Amino acid sequence: MTPTGLPMTVPDPALPTRVRVHEVGARDGLQNEQSVVPTEIKAEFIHRLADAGLTTVEATSFVHPKWVPQLADAERLFPLLGDLQGVRLPVLVPNERGLERALALGAHRVAVFASATESFAKANLNRTVDEALAMFEPVVSRAREQDMHVRGYLSMCFGDPWEGPVPLGQVVRVCRALLDMGCDELSLGDTIGVATPGHVSALLTALTEAEVPVDRVGVHFHDTYGQALANTLAALRHGVTTVDASAGGLGGCPYAKSATGNLATEDLVWMLHGLGIDTGVDLGRLSATSAWMAGHLGRPSPSRTVRALTHQEQ
Amino acid sequence: MTPTGLPMTVPDPALPTRVRVHEVGARDGLQNEQSVVPTEIKAEFIHRLADAGLTTVEATSFVHPKWVPQLADAERLFPLLGDLQGVRLPVLVPNERGLERALALGAHRVAVFASATESFAKANLNRTVDEALAMFEPVVSRAREQDMHVRGYLSMCFGDPWEGPVPLGQVVRVCRALLDMGCDELSLGDTIGVATPGHVSALLTALTEAEVPVDRVGVHFHDTYGQALANTLAALRHGVTTVDASAGGLGGCPYAKSATGNLATEDLVWMLHGLGIDTGVDLGRLSATSAWMAGHLGRPSPSRTVRALTHQEQ
């Protein structure tokens, strides 16, 4: 609409004035794409994301390459990011071995990933929920000794493909355990994208009642059923100010059965800027970066904002 | 998620308990598709939409075929819908000639379409805003004499491609004029999809202050920038209970530069049912219908929910 492709701004006084976008495209996005992107392209991607104003860019994962071949180049990629001053570059670590690899490269921020359900803990980590927490405990403890910032991802916070709706108390319990073991922040994942705004509101209310501080809670919505942005709006109303999103909707390929659909950073930023919420992100530059990456992946971006702003013919 | 493809239900007490979906796929959707769909397929489509529980299905348009060749078959289509008892079948009429055509076929409900901006009134109707209102006045008046229900569409209520942000007072003035001339309900259109939730909230507040009853106001969002569902949530918070949507996101072809992107009915219904809001719609049946129509159009549905529920490989 506006010639420059910016949303109109009409603030809502009930919402925060600033949101930190936790950009996951280079990690959560690329690890779920079929193509393996060359290391130099990944490095350029992360530099372009930082140039677009993103201050937290999850860079890669130290999961064993057997499980995530798309990110097997972590040791080669991370040193290429050394010039990015002032940008947070968290990396995913599954265990103590992963943490040691991250430490050896000079990473300052790590993330562990727990599950709110037994079925997904078993499927993803081959452990019970509590066994997984026990595995992360020494990782978090050692990371904190090294003055690292630790994020705790929590999968299946709303629905689980095997178990259906996830009881709120079950999610609250694992959140508390992650904070008690020393995580600095949490990311509540709707891994299969089934949540709706009332459920988001109910979970955040339950967390607040359990004295989990909302300023340590981020949200991570998937757009499988198109609900991610409405759910984000519900979370903002509860005071959440950290929102995960993936540039161009990477990882949410709409052209495959396995599509899980990450919330596209551009669609998020359009809403936030329209609400007068500061993000520091240059939407035009970010969309251009996502269109460029879509070109490398050989398919259109699933982000509606990227398509609208870059006039992608598809 | 659930094995049956239904969202989990967690109500939000601040929202309405029932919403009427005003289904526009057969009219607003198909008139914006490149393909011209055969009359018999349109009739089957509308029957299937009714079978899926939609109670208001906008059926066709009596605009001159020169302007909308996709709906040139209104006279042949409408009689094929005569067996649909208890389903509202409004039709679009641009002027008195169109109204006479609708009356001759026994239509009970009509819709006129005004513009909130001078630029779009000029582009779409070749008139000023007030000249367009003057053109609709005798149409609404004659329709009311015949006990017809009249809906007034209002385009460009948020942003305009030529004028940018649209002042709230300008929208309020045209809304008042449409109600004063006898329209039973209004549909506020974000024709180019640029609105964000704070803007929606501000416009609904301004309308309430101008004593426009919220139970006569529907919302019509486009998903061009992915904002339609978040905007709908903002409108529900203001008590709006009529929401326009297009089955399968018809008319919002994501594969063309001209994409405007209607809100997909399935994505809307997923959110509403998750919020415990009754719609009467059978989501599985509706998604199957949209997948069937996508097959006729030879392209995937833009609705994320349709893709997820029908496992469309694209």
TrEMBL record, chains A, B:
SUPFAM superfamilies assigned to the protein according to its UniProt record, in alphabetical order: Aldolase
Keyword Lyase in the entry? The reply is: yes
What's in the keyword line of the UniProt record?
Lyase, Metal-binding
One biological process GO term for this chain?
ketone body biosynthetic process
Any idea which GO molecular function terms this record carries?
Answer: hydroxymethylglutaryl-CoA lyase activity; metal ion binding
Q: Which Pfam families match?
A: HMGL-like (PF00682)
InterPro entries registered for this protein in UniProt: Aldolase_TIM, HMGL, PYR_CT
Q: Which CDD domains match?
A: DRE_TIM_HMGL
Is the keyword Ligase in the record? no
Per the UniProt entry, the Enzyme Commission number(s) are: 4.1.3.4
Q: Provide the Pyruvate carboxyltransferase domain boundaries.
A: 19-287
Q: What class of enzyme is it?
A: lyase
Q: Which NCBIfam families match?
A: PRK05692.1 (NF004283)
Record family assignment: Belongs to the HMG-CoA lyase family.
Designated name of the protein = Hydroxymethylglutaryl-CoA lyase
Native organism is Streptomyces alboniger
